[in-house]
Amino acid sequence: MKLFYLGLVIVLTACHLERPFYHPLSLKIEQEKLCFSVPEKDSYNTLLKVGIPYISWLNGNSWETVHLPANTNSDLEIKPGECIFWNEGGWQPGEYDVAVKVKNAYSHEERYAAHFILQKNKQGRLFLKQ
Questions:
Q1: What is the model's pLDDT at position 4?
Q2: Are the C-beta atoms of 128 and 28 separated by less than 8 Å?
Q3: Which residues, in sequence order, are bridge partners of residue 42?
Q4: pLDDT at 16 over 90
Q5: What's the number of CA atoms in the CB half-sphere (13 Å) around residue 37?
Q6: How many CB atoms sit inside 10 A of residue 53's CB?
Q7: Is this structure's pTM higher than 0.90?
Q8: Residue-level pLDDT at 122
Q9: What sign has the CA pseudo-torsion 69, 27, 107, 22?
């Protein structure tokens, strides 16, 4: 009987563990720079506080963290749909994952993420692989 209760506790505990959920972070190239933005439909038309992004780059067969400079603003305030340029990452061709926490005016926190592949054209300009 004790084994039954132990199994029940394990099952119920596993059902209540929080699984991370990420909303899609919009991405486009604007003024020859990567433009990240929180979609307007997700933001309730308020100012948003954006944290420092976590950027990973696929280098060969392993993922590496791209470190931003220490002077990167940790609480950037933006409007919904406004571009965020994190060019300090030194973007180069490759496969990337970017994740960031965003808070609205009521301190409600959401997570946003984007997965993308950058390539260079013959003129040396970066573009997003579709």
A1: 46
A2: yes
A3: none
A4: no
A5: 16
A6: 21
A7: no
A8: 93
A9: negative
